[in-house]
Design brief:
Elements (H helix, E strand, L loop, with lengths): L1 E3 L5 H11 L19 H9 L3 E7 L2 E11 L2 E9 L8 H10 L6 E6 L3 H9 L3 E2 L2 H7 L7 H5 L1 E5 L1 H7 L1
């Protein structure tokens, strides 16, 4: 079942994010990696900034989380993570489909350029990578360091692409 995460889910969300983010170790630029990948303070900041987390729960256990955040004229999909032990079982796809149904606005997703598996996942679900020029403009929707802008890509849904191409 997919449900909105609550304050009580915070420790589990933190655990899932940092478990799943181990896939980035040695893949993303070394100056962007930290341990833990996302601190509890960073996660609290994201929630405070309006990222609404949804979780995939099975038999009472939260197995994956994904955030959604309205920003200006678009909706961002943020912090999509599935526990390492249960990847490749459709959990991420179900979360993404659920969050897509929550908005009629164009959807953008940012991810690391080196995270080829994430890029393939979003492409499989109908998102297309935008041009470098578009990316540099679009990543301003996120509040991320310039170095992260340099090492990221943006994936856009058909609604955004139709309005901007």
């Amino acid at each position: 079942m997919i449900r909105r995460c609550t304050e009580a889910d915070f420790p589990t969300m933190f655990e899932i994010i940092n478990d799943a983010a181990q896939a980035y170790r040695g893949i993303i630029p070394a100056d962007r990696w930290q341990e833990p990948y996302m601190s509890a303070e960073e996660l609290r900041h994201e929630v405070g900034a309006g990222v609404e987390f949804w979780g995939y729960e099975q038999e009472g256990a939260l197995l994956g989380v994904m955030g959604i955040q309205p920003v200006q004229d678009v909706t961002l999909i943020r912090h999509a993570y599935v526990r390492t032990a249960v990847r490749q079982q459709g959990i991420g796809g179900q979360l993404l489909a659920h969050l897509r149904a929550l908005t009629t606005r164009p959807i953008l997703i940012g991810t690391w350029a080196a995270a080829t598996w994430a890029i393939r996942f979003y492409a499989k679900h109908g998102f297309q990578q935008v041009t470098e020029e578009e990316k540099n403009l679009l990543l301003r929707y996120w509040q991320i360091p310039e170095r992260q802008v340099e090492t990221s890509v943006v994936m856009a849904d058909a609604t955004w692409l139709a309005a901007h191409r």
